Amino acid sequence: MARLLYLKPVPPFRQPVTFRALWVLLIAALAAYAQVAFMQYGLRYDMIDQYLPWRSFVADCLRGWTWPFWNPYQHWGYYFSADPQSGAWYPLNWLYALAGGYTVYFNQFDFTLHVILGGLGMFRLARHLSGDARAALIIAITYMLSGFFTGNAQHLTYVISGAWVPIVFHQYLLLWRRPGWPHAIRFALAFFMLLSGGYPAFTIIVAYCLAFMFLSGLWSRRHARNGISAYLRGHAFAALAVCLLGAFVITSVLTSLGYVMRGTAIPLEDAVFNPFSPRCMWSWLYPLWSAREPAYFDTDISMSNLYFGIFGLALFISSILTKPDRRQVFMLLAGLFFLLVSFGGYTPVRGWLYAYVPFMDLFRFPSIFRLFALIPFLLVASVFLSRLLNGNRQARRWFDLAVGLIGLSGVCAIAYTRAQGIGLEGTGGLFAYVNNLAPLQAIQVQALVTVVLAFAWLALRGRIKQVYRPLLVFVMLDLVIAAQLNGPLTVYDRYRTAHIDGIMDGLPDNFPNPGNRPSAEWGDSRSLASPFWRNLSLLRREPGHDGFNSFRMSGYGQLIEEPLLMEKYLSAPLAYLSTSHSFYSDTIYDHGHIARDSSHLYFMAEDSLSVPDPGGGRGQVEVAVFRPGDITLETKTTGQVFLTLKQHFHPGWQVLIDGTEARVWKTNYLFMTIQVPEGSHRITYSFTAPFIKASFIISFASILLCLAVLALAGRRSHSG
Asked: 577 and 448, same structural domain?
C-alpha cells in the first residue's frame, strides 16, 4: 500500500503514475460508497424512480432489436430519445444491453464507475495544471468524494456530468496547447460522452466555458499567423468530429422542437428554483446538517451539499492568503462567479444570465453551477498543495494555521450544541441513526469528526517530515467518513439490492401485448412493492397515462389542464371507435358534453379543413402487436368509422391500413385518429423517423472510426 501511494512529480502523461493513482481512487470510492459499490443497498429517489426504469427500457429495446426512439408506456407515449435524460444516446447503456440488460446491479455499478471516472478526470486535469501527481491525487479524491457526488447521488445524469466535465476541460487544454487531430478527436469523444449522457445544463455551461477559452487562445496567438491557422484548423476538426459523433443527439433534439414542453424558455421563478443558497456554504463544514434541515437551507437536500473536506477547505483558504499567482487568481475569480450564479435568486447574477445569455433560460436548479465553482477552487488549491508537498515552509505554516482554525470552529460548534442540551444519543445501525438525527445533532456529529481529525493532524505536525502520505490518509479518512454519514440521507436507501432485483425479476423484460384495456387500469396508481412507486407503467410495460418525468410533449401538457376530459379518457380503451365528434376546435370547453361520452373526439384546428363525415359505423378493435414504435391493430367494423389510438401524435408516425398509407389527424390535443373503411382490416403504426435512424448510424460509425484511429495512432507511437 505504501508503495502504491508513492507518487512523484512527473511529466503529465506518464501512464504508470495514472494507473497507480487509479488504484488509490478505486479504494477511496469503494470505501466511501461501500453500501452501493458492494451491492448491499439500492440507490435512492430518482435513481430508482427514473433512471433505472428508463435505462432498463433502453437495454430491452436494444436487446430486442428495437429502436429506442418511442416510449409508449408513459404519458400516452412520447418521443423518448428526444429526452436528454433518457440514456438512449449514451454508449455505456448500449454496452449494458450487450451484457444482458440494465439491472439494479448495473445501476449501482454505473454510479460507482462514474464516481471513479470523475476522480480520474480530475487527477489528469489537476496534474496538468499543477505539474505534481501527488497534489493531483489528493485533489482528485477530494473532488470525487465531494458533496456534489454525495448530494446528487440520486441524479445519474448529474453524476455522469461530474465525471466527464473535468475530462472535457483537460482534453480541451491539450487541444488548446497543441491543436492537432489526435487531441481534437479525444476532445470530441469526451464532449460527446458529456453531451449524450449528462444533464443538458452542464453541457451548455461547459460550452460557454470552452468558448471563452477558445477566444482567449485566439487573443494569445494574435501575433503568430501560423499559430492562429493551426489553432483554427484544430478547432474546426474538433467541431466537425463533435457534430458527427453527436448527430443522433442533435437530430433528436431538432426534430422534437415544437412538440415538447421544455423546448422554450421557462419562467424565471423556475430558473432560480432549488439554488445553492448562501446558507448552503455551511456544508463546507457541516454537510450532514445541510441534509437534515432543507427548510433552513431553502433548497432540496440533493442541492445543498458542497463539502470538499476540512483539509480541502484549509488548502483553499491557504492558497488565497499566500499571494496566489495569475493562474490561481483567474481560477479563483471564475469560481466566485459561478458560486454567485449558484445562489440563484439570492443574487442578480442568475437573473442576468437568464435574461441576456442564450440557452440560460432553458433549465432549472442554479445549484448546478456549484460544480463549476468547486472545480476551479480545487485547482487553485492544487497549485498551493504542490508547494506544500515540496517542502515550502511558509505554505506549511499557513496550512496548519487553517486546519487549526477549522478545528477550533468545530470546538465552538460542539460547545454551542451541548449548551442547547444536545447529545449524540441514538439507537439502531448507521442508517437509522443518521435518519433520526435532529439538525443540531447533525452539526455536533460532524463537528466531532472535524475536531478529531484537525487536532490529530496538528498533533503529528512536529513528527511529519514528508507531508504527502499522512495528508493523503487524512484526506481519505475525512471524506470517506463524510460520505458514510451522508450516505443514508442522499445516496442509498434501506432496501437491499437483492430485494430490488427480485422485484424486477418479476417484471417483463420484453414487450408483451397489453390488450385493449382502459388506461385507468394502468399507471402509478397501481402500487408495486417498495421502493418502486413511480413510472410503474413503464416497469410493467403497460401503456399508462402518467409518469414521473419533467420531459413532456406539448399535447399532453394541454390535456392535463382539462381534468374532466382527462378523467373521461382514462375510462376509454387503448384503441377505440368514436361515437361522437366535434370539429374545428382550438380549445376544448364543453366539459358537460365530455362527461356524457368518453369516446368523443375533438379535432384540432389545423385539421379542420379536411375532416370527412365520420359515417357513424360500429365495430371492434383488438391489439395484435404492441412494441415501442411498432403497434398493430385489427378492426372489424360495420360502416366507416374513426379509430383513435391513445398514443401521442408526431409526424414521425406512419399509419398503414392493409399496406396503404392513411391520413392521421390529431384529436383531443394529442391522440392519433384515422378513418377506417367498413370490414376487417389490419392497421400498423410505425414510428419511422428516417432522419433519426440515419443520424444514429452516423453517430455509431463515427464512434467506431474515432476509436480505431486513436488506437492505430497509439500503436504507431508505441512502436516508434
From this structure: no
Give the residue-averaged pLDDT of 132-141.
Answer: 95
Compute the distance between CA of residue 649 and CA of residue 664 in angstroms, rounded to an integer: 8
**36 burial type by CB count under 10 A (0-12 exposed, 13-18 middle, 19+ buried):** buried
Tens of pLDDT, residues 10-58: 444 445 667 788 999 999 999 999 999 999 999 999 999 999 999 999 9
Alpha-carbon distance of 346 to 378, in angstroms, equals: 24
* Cα separation, 522 vs 211, whole angstroms: 47
Closest C-alpha among 453, 479, 140, 438 to residue 306:
479
Question: 315 and 232, same structural domain?
Answer: no
Contacts of 595 (CB under 8 A, 6+ apart): 564, 568
Of 440, 466, 492, the residue at which a domain comes to its end is: 466
- Enter the pTM of the model: 0.94
Asked if 68 and 57 count as a contact pair (C-beta separation under 8 A), the reply is: yes
pLDDT in tens, 414-425: 999 999 988 888
Do 328 and 429 lie in one domain? The reply is: yes
Task: Sort strands 41-43 and 660-661 into parallel, antiparallel or unpaired.
Answer: unpaired
Residue 350: CB partners within 8 Å, gap ≥ 6? 271, 272, 275, 341, 342, 343, 344, 366, 369
Residues 230, 371 within the same domain: no
Q: Residue 81 pLDDT > 60, yes or no?
A: yes
Cβ partners under 8 Å of residue 270, min gap 6: 364
End-to-end CA, the chain: 34
Whether 336 is in a domain gets the answer yes
698 is a domain residue: yes
pLDDT in tens, 101-131: 999 999 999 999 999 999 999 999 999 998 8
Locate cell 482534453: which residue? 171
**Do 147 and 306 touch, CB atoms closer than 8 A?**
yes
Structurally, the chain folds into a number of domains equal to 3
Q: Are 365 and 338 in contact (CB under 8 A)?
A: no
User: Are 350 and 457 contained in the same domain?
Assistant: yes
User: Containing domain of residue 411, as a range?
Assistant: 271-466
